[in-house]
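Selenocysteine lyase/cysteine desulfurase
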Amino acid sequence: MIAEAAPLTEQKHLFSLPVGIHYINCATRSPFSRAVEQAGHDALTHHANPFGLHPDDFFSGSVRVRALFSQLIHNPDPERIAIIPSVSYGMGVVARNLPRKPGIRPGQHIVLADAEFPSDVYAWERVCAELSLTITVVAMPTDFPKGPAWNERLLDAIGPDTALVVVPAVHWMYGLRFDLEAIGQRAREVGAWLAIDGTQSIGALPFDLDAVQPDAVVCAGYKWLMGPYSLGLAYFGPAFDDGIPLEEGWMNRLDSNQFHRLMDYQPAYRPKAYRYNVGEQTHFIQMPMLETALTQLLAWQPERIQAYTKQLMDPAWPILESLGCRIEPANGRVGRSHHLVGLWLPDHANPMAISQALQAQNVAISARATVLRIAPHLYNTPADVDALVGVLTEVLM
């Protein structure tokens, strides 16, 4: 029997955050851990002199990162992971290959959640025009709790005329969870593809690829994966095995590590998702940083990150609710997450003005639409929560 891992304690000592700064904003960008920072410095030093660089060195770092990310999402086949620069790139791959989907026909629709991040929306405009598809946006309920009803609305929107469902595990503004297992099952029943934006969840919230069975999972690396900007990862399932990439990178072809034969042009791609790697996917400086970050996340475990952020923030919610704020209840797979929470302010409050008041007191959160987005991690302590509550108490009373 495997012993359950011990609960995590705060890990602020592993980061270089200045004293007096209360950074509760991992949903915007994660700070680097000291280890990730050092990996970047080491890579810069190492590659200042390229003497002795071997062809396989252009591939080995990404091989390790794909394996680590596969462990994180419980993917048994790292060859299904591609190196991408952004969510828009990964969703662009899905859009590029949607015309190849078996059974695609004019009049079908793409299902999106309301107020989704732009990279999950803009990708479909051109393909909808080309294929005569429409977009169905599933509105968020106005009443609390919002999560169960929103999930039901989304499931109801998926039917025989659905070509594609695009949904996050956690909404990027509100922190509301979507039941990916139920959505995946419904999509498979009607023959729709399922593309998941894991940017605001993977790394801090457990994700089981086999339970969800998506066709694509796209994830930026600079938020909850705690790596560098402009480097991300994507899973592409069997539906994409013979698909069309966004670019024809030479590294994505068979035997591309045999530099002495590169002029023997190779029509065949490396297997599975390798064709979707961005050009120059080696990222000599950034890849070691992402590798270090993923190694640390696997040691921490997303389950324990959820537990820590829940325990950290739980004392704050009753106080903030007494000031007229609202939060979604924690309600399993259809409630709020604990690492990213939307705080609905009283009607009279101005989210941007409150965000500025918090910034003036060195408290970093994000204002998104009518909510404050609070996104704690292991580097946060009760002192950070006290600072947040103190400023909100002062400006809302």
